[in-house]
Amino acid sequence: RVRYEALDNQFRSNRDGSDQLLLLRSLLQVEADLGDVNLGFELQDSRTYLGDAGTPLSSSIANPVDFLQIYAEFENLPGLLGEESSSVATLGRQTVPIGSKRQIERVDFANVIKSYTGLYAVSTHERGDELHLMYVVPTARFPNTRPDLDDNTLSGDEEQWGRHIWAVHYRRADILPTLAPGLWGEVFVYGLEEEDTDSFQTPDRSYVSPGFRLYRAPEVGQWDIDWESALRQGTRYASSSPADTQSLDVDASMTFFAFGYTFDAPLRPRLAFEYYYASGDDDPNDLSYDQHERLFGSRRSDLNNTSIHGPLTPANLNAPGFRVE
Questions:
Q1: pTM, 2 dp
Q2: Whether 244 contacts 225, CB under 8 Å
Q3: Residue 301: phi, psi to the nearest 5?
Q4: Least confident of 47-51, 222-226, 241-245, 304-308
């Protein structure tokens, strides 16, 4: 994939002027089907050109040749949702998309896809229900320093063994078949535990994030809905500095709500009202941290483009609006 971006009137602080960037992303996935076991890998090569000293490059934009995935996938395992269910478990380095992808995603628009290492299992029922179980560590992407990013220097990615992500996410199909056919219900809880290692300093976050989602996909001649809310409780330090040992209480939340209707007309126009809320920090000098952090979820699908165009992230937001598709 080749994409060219141009930006006039820079919006980022302490930067001015225009900007441009040429982004290339190449993916190669190979998988061997051995019956109930699949072995596979995926290579990712993400490079940039035409940037200058003012271009906001990072490891989410450039990541030259490396393994995005190296995994073993085990199929037809016993299901956890009753007799009419089965499970698939994936072990190794992998990408993880669940539900709306607001909690954890495999990105599409961004030039570099995130990956995780560990165990991810999905049980599915014949009626469509899904139970997702996950225990993984994120992968740190290299290079991550400016000269190496400018030069597309080769440098292997590494697992962040001091950061642990876990999740239990249940999706129920057709929860109101009479009143609202096709309405999905979801409940979930995600957790993050961090500790410093010799190679990677963290804010020592310890989070638990419960939440829910109601979702009805857009279809011609009917209303649709997407309502997702999540709380976040726990502790963290204000920064990743080893000298920072003052623990802060975390109390954050997010809500996305969209209600739309697709008309039976040429081009199938859909009109939707949307609202996005993500908490901010009321007082930076107290001992609480109230700002919502995106962590591993998506921002583009709700808040528009990322890369050099991305001014918005789900933090400190109170934003109603509408969308026409």
A1: 0.93
A2: no
A3: -60, -30
A4: 304-308
Residue type, 242: P
- Using alpha carbons, select from 103, 302, 95 the residue that is nearest to residue 187: 103
CB 127 within 8 A of CB 175: no
- Alpha carbon distance 41, 116 (integer Å): 13
| 90 CA to centre of own chain | 18
Distance CA 124, CA 110 (A): 29
* Residue 111 DSSP class: S
Q: Report the chain's terminal Cα–Cα distance, integer Å.
A: 24
Residue 305 has pLDDT above 80, yes or no: no
Would you say 41 and 69 are in contact if contact means Cβ atoms under 8 Å apart?
Answer: yes
Rounded to whole angstroms, how far apart are CA atoms 178 and 185? 15
Residue 285 has pLDDT above 90, yes or no: no
Taking the CA atoms of residue 314, residue 319, residue 320 and residue 322 in that order, the dihedral angle to the nearest 10 degrees is -60
Q: How confident is the model at residue 227 (pLDDT cuts 50, 70, 90)?
A: very high
* pLDDT attached to residue 252: 97
User: What's the CA gap between 38 and 175, in Å, rounded?
Assistant: 33
Token pair for 263 = 């008309």
For β-strands 248-262 and 288-289, DSSP reports them as parallel
**What distance in Å separates the CA atoms of residue 83 and residue 282, rounded to the nearest whole number?**
50
Contact by Cβ (8 Å): 164, 192: yes
pLDDT at 174 over 80: yes
The DSSP bridge pattern shows strands 206-216 and 248-262 to be: unpaired
- DSSP designation for 141: P
Distances (CA, A) of 218 to 68, 214, 266, 301, 323: 32, 13, 16, 15, 13
Half-sphere exposure of 128 (CA within 13 A, CB side): 10
